[in-house]
Amino acid sequence: MPRTITIDPVTRIEGHSKITIHVDDHGVVTDARFHTTQFRGFEKLCEGRPFYEMPSLMARTCGICPVSHLIASSKACDQILAVKIPPAAEKLRRIINLAQIIQSHALSFFHLSSPDFLLGLDFDPARRNLFGVLEANPQAARDGIAMRKFGQRIIEMLGGKRIHPAWVVPGGVNEPLTEERRTAILAMIPEAYEIAERTLAWFEPMVEHHREEILTFANFPTMFLALVNDRGQLDFYDGGLRFVDAAGNIVADHVPPAEYAEHIAEAVEPWTFMKFPYHQAFGYPQGIYRVGPLARLNVISAMGTPRADDAWRRMMQDERGPVLSSFHYHWARLIEILAGVERIERLLRDPEILSRHVRAHAEPNRHEGIGISEAPRGTLIHHYWVDDEGLVTRANLIIATGHNNLAMNRGILQAAKHYLDGRKITEGALNRVEAVIRAFDPCLSCSTHAAGQMALDVSLVGPGGEIIDRVQRD
Ligand code: MG
Ligand code: NI
User: Fold this and answer.
1) Domains plus CATH for the chain?
2) Which distant-in-sequence residues (6+ apart) come within 8 Å of 266 by Cβ?
3) Which residues surround ligand 1, an ion (CB under 5 A)?
4) What is the pLDDT averaged over residues 275-289?
5) How close is the Cα of 401 to the center of ligand 2, in Å?
6) Which residues contact 430 (CB under 8 A, 6 or more apart)?
7) Which of 128, 303, 442, 471 has the fewest beta carbons closer than 10 A?
8) pLDDT tens per residue across span 226-246
């Protein structure tokens, strides 16, 4: 009889989900599916609410990436106000967005995935975690904790509190940056550079030991999507959409956010709550594309900062076109951490960053607003329609994890077929199937708008009983 192997829950990812692998009579893998198991209709919850509540409401859709939703949502609201926000406000929003990307990438790389690199994918699963890393490579574990803290402290210093800062608002931000806080953040920059460079230094030579994973972790041709600035460089906050194909040809460029729906459509499958976005012109599922760190590094013409450009060229040097293996999301994440530190420093050294003018006030002046930004996991789209009173009549969100849904499913199928060959199912093989998902670092919390119950809560406790770090997952 055909059988189904279930991995439930998938560990070391953000949110609750499961993988099912379908096997025929002969033990041959026929299908693999990535399911999300919870759902709340957040788009529906928006309806009837005043548009200006959207940023803080949307931030509450996800306890993992609230800052990313604040940014995209506030940008959509700026459009409803029909204002151009003050330059200092845009720069401050950029800083908090970068801080979120850094802390999220640090969590993904160090806490969730570094056990696979530093201990091995076949290592004892009971110790294949950050505690194991702390024993085997204390420096890497400490670096991970410090890197994450760097991003979190910047978010706290700007937004006032760690979770759901209400500091980013329609029209700009709530409060200007003080000289004192600028100095405090700048003082943290040198250590952040050290950690980012030190981590790349051990990670890069280790890549060659993962040839098999590189070949089998969602390694196939797809398009890639990300925002780029007017020079085609990386832009996490604004710009136009660029699609490139698997050979590196630009399929669409500088697409204004307002025209996203001419390129992106969403398909539905009966076995999961998550939709499957695809590029309209190519149809479903041929219009498959990937977003996120790897996609961003594949679509850009340059990173736009010197240290990250060096690291980016090292990653791209062997490839004639885009890097197709999703294993390299990890490498891309490290390069983006470095880029984020450079960009934060550059923004803080701009004298305009201390301007008192950080918010434009207006009434609603448009019936529609679209905000697109790059979240840690990829392109994030918030689209609202409002009535004459500014009440939301309809909302559409396309979140980063959604864009990658087709590729994640195809990726676990590829890995399952390779590693679950025959009837021999090993823990190491199952871990590799899960590791494909971890490479994408999906946020199931915001892709399913899950209610946010903590199924897992890991605290790293120091010798004196103090909590060094804590990771919570729904
Ligand atoms: Mg949607
Ligand atoms: Ni999220």
Assistant:
1) 5-23+32-447 (1.10.645.10)
2) 275, 276, 277, 278, 398, 402
3) 396-397
4) 96
5) 8
6) 5, 7, 420
7) 471
8) 999 999 999 999 999 999 999
